[in-house]
Fold each of these.
Amino acid sequence: MKHAIVLLLLASISSFSSASPTNNVIPSRQNVNPKINKHLRPVLEKRQEFDEGEPIDAKGKGAPILGGTDKQIDLQNPDNLGAQSTDNGVVPNVKWRFSDSKTRLLSGGWVREQVITDLPASKDIAAAQQHLTKGSIRELHWHRVAEWGYVYAGKVRVAAVDEHGENQVDDLDATLMQPGNAESRFLRQNVNKRTRTTFNVDDWITHTPKDILAKNFGVDESLFDAVPTPNPYILKSNATDGNVTSPYGKLEGNSSYVYHLSRIQVPQAPGGGGTIAIVDSRNFPIATTIAAAVVTLEPHGLRELHWHPNVSSISHETAQSVN
């Protein structure tokens, strides 16, 4: 309103000053120059306010949100406020924040998941994020489906064994080092429930009589008295460099379950807006059903518009902000 008042006052002064100074007569409505008269109406500038978290476009459509909202989420999701005029709102939600997942607190860290009940559009891939304190162990386990793990902070030691008894122990570290702790994200195929997708070794041991276990492993029954129950998931422990033997052979070369992204020269993307490292069965032969691409974007960089016509894809942001 202050701008409007100032403009009206200036317009009035200009109109009155155009009258002859000799008679001091206020000009009639008919004598006012129409080109000047049309400017007596104030012109208010219209602008979009999506970047301020308000559903108001540049044409003046919409109105401020007066309550019942999360301002930070609104600022992060301008499209939800109507910023894209061509969006009819019929595309299923394809975003999920781990911050909205239930976090399980454990003795050696924490874990939180995203499954189909969280993100119904993701029918083929589920994800989990977990943090291990120094020396802690993710319980020995396996899955009915393929799984990938990506270490983005800290350092972890990975142990794997296949159905032939061949094994592997390897250390993985992230580019962003955080001494003492480690965090990683996991992707799993064809997971549609929060349970029954992971088989933990203690589930098997606690459901097997101790005398059978003792005879099978050639040890005393008392060794199994301290098997944790219920499922500990992550256990506090101490890091060790104990010697691990491989009587049935090692998982190495094309059989390795570990890929060291930190050991390769990550190529620049052809468009020059960042880097892209593709990991699939061509350079990671054991991964026959899941592939991955680690992409870094320069400020204002753009991942080329694309889609996957015959497979599902899921993206995880690990640093900074991406729109």
Note: Helices lie at 2-17, 34-37, 71-76, 201-206, 210-217.
Amino acid sequence: MAWDRSLPPGESSPRTKLILRSFTLLLTTIGLILTGLSLIYTWPLFIPLSLSFLWNLANIIRRLTAQTPVVPGANVGVDLIIWLVFVATLLFTWASAIEAVSFVSDYYGYEYDSYRGYYGYGYGSRYGDAGNGAEIAVGAAAMATLVFVFTVALWVWACVDCHRYRFLERYPVYRRGIKGGTGYPGPMVLQTDAVQGV
């Protein structure tokens, strides 16, 4: 596959990243379906879930078809924007979904009166709002929370790869494949005499 042929400097564990992005794409798809079924409560989630879906899909396609995957800096920037939008919308969505599920509504309707033993009109209380998708809204919020967690994990991973990428661009002697290249030595090497002489 393309990500085995040519990787940018600093790229680590390409298969694991592909699996993680694919799993995030699956969770995002489920989250979008649940959001569509309970749009009255979860409409703010549509924005970050759509962004996540498009970015992960583009990233996977690029990783499988292009000569090189997306550079780490692009992953850092886009994943950061997506999880910041998630933070802004998840709090509102969780509050809205929990309020909808725990809402007590009074109603007047035709029902069976067990005390009197016959059907008739009367007042009562009903907990939750299941008919309008409140329980589905909780599921959508939970799915979006999982997507948020995976997005943050991918962002942190991209930050580490970005650091490696910048280091190996600055000191190419450490790249693997070059005669004597040892690979990424770690951040502390920047302070040693070996790097200062490069």
Note: The longest helix spans residues 134-170.
Amino acid sequence: MANHASGDSTSALYETDSDGNAILVFQDGKALAPNDEVTITYGDEKGACEMLFSYGFIESTVGSARELFLDLHIPDDDPLKLAKKAVAQSAPGFRLFLHDDSTDWESSFIWLLCANEEDGLDFELLQNNDGERELQASWKDEEITDMSNLVTLLKQEALWDVFELRATTVLQRRVEQQLLRLEGSRNSVNELLIIGEIDNDIRENAMRLRDLEEILLLHAYGDFETKKCQLLESPVVQQYLGTTMTENPGVSEDDFS
């Protein structure tokens, strides 16, 4: 057993030896005097949500949600929706996280939302040697065996800025939806607090998580807006939008995705 401390106060960590046993070792550069307390960290890089879920509390030293995961849905009017869902190999969403002084994100799924049949994405139902059918995805006639490689193929395209703008727009809208959801539930949450049937520690941790995630979401929304403005200055994007709006007069930049 070891007590907990965060940051530079952590003196030890658990590792696994050659036999698979957990062993407690000092961190590099750490030394203890007799009777000093041995401490470990619960995970300085853990997001506030993960810490609350794993341990039932959020450390007082945590000043940011650090990260969160938001789900994504393929629109119902996408004619390839069922095929995209069938070949998707990653969680249907994106990880939003704090990186230095800005936010960043990770997702393989988003590119399935941003590539369509007219771009070059196609699906074919094939029959293998065992007589079983399988769905095969391809990009401009090139077979895709790992859907996480779709983004690599898109980056090779002259219209990469367009695909990136699509992704940025979709992700920003999802962040906006989450912010509206938090704001829309505020009255219901306040009513629960007034009733007073919730344990004080639970209430404080839940409200703190809401506040931390709202700050991260607002930060991300601003970063997405900055990125979107940069991409709209791209000659590739401007030419694409000009052609698109000429061919489809009802389409606006605000409905780009």
Note: The beta strands are 3-4, 12-16, 22-26, 39-40, 67-71, 93-99, 102-106, 121-127, 133-139, 142-144.
Amino acid sequence: MLHTKTIQQNQINKSDLRQRAAESCILHFHEHVGFDLEDPLRNHLVLRDPPSKDEDRFTLDEIFETPLHRACLVVAMGCNSGRSGGDVEHDNLLGLLAAFHYSGASAVVSTLWAVHYADCMHFSKAFYACLMANMEDTGAVSEYVDVAKASQETVVTVQMDEKGEPLPPYKWAGFYLHGAGRMPRFALGDG
């Protein structure tokens, strides 16, 4: 669909991830997220499951240090990927969202709570279909792509099952867009 390169969990290391992130326009993570309540900078994406050493975790510290010059859209389909901070007693805004934005992402799609794998897959397929349709609708007319419109259309789409029956909100309401609603257009061949 987007001429992407898929890398399965357990098949990437931090060095490769940093290099690919710097070269990509869209980063899509469909993996677990880990939290360290004592040190929020140790919150991480799980690269190898189960994580047994530091190389298996891509921490906030490391995300902050990874330039995402071309990675203007990050899709983080992991449980609670939109969660910030360590403990809830403080206004700690440190989380994956802050790290990705600091590193250069214009927009981040993430989850507010633990979302089932199948629901993440369903949302992702619908989101990319809506994103591509939005880009094709505007053609070469606009230098921007409306990520907010694609996100909104996706939520409307995934609220119903194949028979047109409404699904419970926990299956679709946990996905949200944070950041820019419009972002610079990218070629459909960019990955």
Note: The helical segments are 14-23, 60-64, 96-103, 117-138, 147-158.
